[in-house]
Amino acid sequence: MRLKNLKILIKNTPPKFVFEEVLIKEVIPMIDSTYRTIADRDYRAMAGLSMGANQTIRITMNNLDKFSYIGGFSGTSNYPKSDKIDRETFMNGIFNDGNNLKEKINLFWLGLGTKEPKPFPESVGAFRKMLDEAGIDHVYYESPVTAHEWLTWRRSLYQFCSVVVQIYKINLPEDKNEIS
């Protein structure tokens, strides 16, 4: 009898990444229906800080039909590991085809404070090296004399948004004469 109850409990367990499912199926459609957005991957960005950077990279890479601007502040999806990343196995091999990703990603942006504690610099460094080996262009920003803190993330957000807006303006459809 106990084993049967356990099977029922397991069947009713939510998916591992519930946040991703809710974001994609509920939050984004609600935003697009409520606010004046351009509901297109070429005009959608996602960024996160620390563990949120890990989530951001995982969610955006799993949903490249929804996002083309990716920002990670003080974190990457290989955290806390700093060893060489095997593109064949890491995140189900999504970084293995760099040429395909280069066409899908308008901006891959990483930021880090120069005084971040271990293992952040090493982990981000390993991730950047993997991107370089795959031929995936990315922007890297270092916030001077800041650690794993709000000032690092405020500066990173400012720098990330500045680049996103510049790219948006270049790619804005002709029927949209301004970003509002």
Structure in words:
This protein has helices spanning 2-11, 18-34, 51-62, 98-104, 120-134, 150-171, and strands at residues 45-49, 69-73, 107-113, 139-143. By secondary structure, the chain is α/β, with parallel strands linked by helices. It folds into 2 domains: 1-35; 40-171, Rossmann fold. The protein is globular.
Could you outline the blueprint of secondary structure elements for this entry?
Blueprint: H1 2-11, H2 18-34, E1 45-49, H3 51-62, E2 69-73, H4 98-104, E3 107-113, H5 120-134, E4 139-143, H6 150-171
Parallel strand pairs: 1-2, 2-3, 3-4
- CATH homologous superfamily (4th level) name of the largest domain: Alpha/Beta hydrolase fold, catalytic domain
What is the CATH class name of the largest domain? Answer: Alpha Beta
**Number of domain modules:** 2
In the sheet with the most strands, the strands line up as 1-2-3-4
- Overall pLDDT metric: 90
Radius of gyration: 18 Å
- At the fold tier of CATH, the topology name of the largest domain is Rossmann fold
Tell me the total number of β-strands. 4
Write the element-wise H/E pattern from the N-terminal end onward: HHEHEHEHEH
- CATH arch. level architecture of the largest domain: 3-Layer(aba) Sandwich
Sum up the structure in keywords.
alpha/beta; Rossmann fold; 4 strands; globular
Please sum up the structure shown.
The chain has 180 residues and is α/β, with parallel strands linked by helices.
